[in-house]
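User: Good morning. I'm curious how flavin-adenine dinucleotide would be positioned relative to this chain. Could you predict the structure with it bound?
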Amino acid sequence: MNWTAQDTTALLDTVERFAREALVPHVNDWDAAAGFPRALYQQAAHIGLLGLGYPEHLGGTPAPWRARNAVSQLLARRTASGGLLASLFSHNIGLPPILKHGSPEVQAQVIPPVLAGEQIAALGITEPGGGSDVANLRTTARRDGADYVIDGEKTFITSGVRCDWITLAVRTDAVNKGAGGISLIAVPCDAKGIERTALHKMGWHASDTAHIRFDGVRVPARHLLGEEHKGFRMIMGNFNGERLAMSALALGFAEACHDEALAWARERKTFGQALVEHQVVRHKLMDMRMRIASTQHWLDALGDHIDAGDEGADWVANVCLLKNHSTQAMQANADAAVQILGGMGFMRGTACERIYREVKVMMIGGGAEEIMKELAARQSGL
Ligand SMILES: Cc1cc2nc3c(=O)[nH]c(=O)nc-3n(C[C@H](O)[C@H](O)[C@H](O)COP(=O)(O)OP(=O)(O)OC[C@H]3O[C@@H](n4cnc5c(N)ncnc54)[C@H](O)[C@@H]3O)c2cc1C
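Assistant: Good morning! Here's the predicted structure, ligand included:
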């Protein structure tokens, strides 16, 4: 890949303009309306955002993780809307298993329309019975002639109501009830027997989140990704990318809180002084900066490692811990920013109010904090 620092600068300029013109003026309305227009996918595709990190022959633009993280971080900092970004980029959790393990035919069928913003992709792992214990999932896919027949339920699925494709985790081995009986399959969402229900949430209001039932859904067996019963490792591998991207987003949200709190603290006067001149407030702002700096350095280092091809056990452990660190930084900064804004921080329309409501999903989704620590410990040989 021939990627230079100038490429990153040019890309970030484009993203900055896109955020300013196409996203920021609308985020509050989209939050209030609990959704954003489907046309936004095509707008994002048009400037190459959806295709970042995907091969050219499938309609993408190969780009290193460092640049992709910088894009996520900037979008989060400018929009302060995790719900918007979660749905607009849900293909970044749905497509990678297809890219890595799907047949060339399935890749050609699914990936180009999604990167063009014409179709929407999602990932379906979590079930009503649990999301952390992936090895225990119950949705089944039974082989019947040239098809699999899928029965079960998925829940909390991002882009679940609108998606055209869902990369679905299913149990293909009726005997093996553990990790060894799981497969991944690309399911077209216009198949008969799929019923979707929108869910209402504490935050991420702009995001489409669904409960999905599969009732005798027939999918061609050629949609299986990789080998049958080998899906668990694919799912775990996919989580690494999701967690790294979530860390970049969390960092951007932590910055958005700092930006808003600093601007407010300079402007607002109490007892004859700007807030920023009160030592307690200044110290809060420095604590926020400290969390941003530590997260930034760790994120950049892990981005460099994966760009250099290092995805070993230590890297995986670090990604898990970074996800916890970055989301804790986001949480602490959201708390500090709301406090500095006072009553205004409790009002709809401020960035920190939304981020304060959105932080819990960042600490739970894509692997909850406790699971991150367990996984990091295991990867470290403990
Ligand atoms: C808005 C939103 C969007 C989402 N989008 C998607 C999506 O697109 N696709 C998808 O597949 N999933 C999605 N999820 C699901 C998310 O990944 C799960 O919520 C998450 O993995 C946790 O699973 P759970 O909610 O079932 O909690 P559980 O697994 O039931 O865990 C509940 C709590 O117990 C803790 N816990 C569990 N086991 C242990 C243990 N051994 N030791 C200590 N503590 C433990 C967990 O850390 C957690 O705090 C989304 C969730 C939300 C809220």
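The mean pLDDT is 97. Strands lie at 121-124, 140-144, 147-158, 165-171, 182-188, 194-198, 209-220, 224-225, 269-270, 273-274.
Let me know if you'd like a different ligand tried.
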